[in-house]
Specification:
The protein is an alpha/beta fold. It contains 6 helices and 7 strands. The chain has one domain: 3-Layer(aba) Sandwich (Rossmann fold).
Length: 151
């Protein structure tokens, strides 16, 4: 069954997205990133601006096949093409809408920033996933790690 993860209360969504993708890449995971083209392009540019020691191999899914094969992060505004890509461990959604289907998706990740429009669309996606019967894993980024360790 599909695993859905919501990372919410991210004070700086762009920084957190890069950190999350860097961590997944370091663990040998391959992540597809789906959303509107302007957000995909912005994230791609942000990933290029990371320190060289934090480099995350990434490309557009529409780039030449040899680059796609070597990249740990694949960026695409096209859901069907992204979900048809073999060997993806997860898909990170940057969309305000839920995906059109979940065929071929093992894990879906949502990151929610502090802006009210982002929170409102996330609530709608959460409701949609719950109605479909998916279990949602909550990751509250406003809770310090030390507090989590005490419980």
């Amino acid at each position: 069954m599909l695993q859905v993860d919501f990372h919410f209360n991210s004070p700086d969504k762009d920084t957190y997205l890069c950190r999350l993708l860097r961590k997944a890449s370091a663990q040998g995971k391959r992540v597809g990133v789906w959303g509107p083209e302007e957000l995909i392009n912005k994230l791609g540019q942000t990933l290029w601006q990371l320190n060289p020691s934090d480099f995350v191999s990434h490309c557009q899914l529409s780039d030449p096949p040899h680059l796609v094969k070597l990249s740990s992060v694949l960026l695409s505004p096209e859901w069907a093409e992204l979900t048809a890509t073999p060997k993806l461990d997860a898909i990170l959604s940057l969309s305000e809408l839920p995906p059109p289907d979940f065929k071929g998706v093992a894990r879906l990740i949502e990151v929610v920033g502090p802006q009210e429009p982002d929170k409102a669309s996330a609530r709608q996606r959460w409701k949609h996933y719950t109605q479909l019967g998916f279990t949602i894993h909550r990751h509250d980024l406003s809770v310090p790690a030390a507090v989590l360790l005490k419980s």
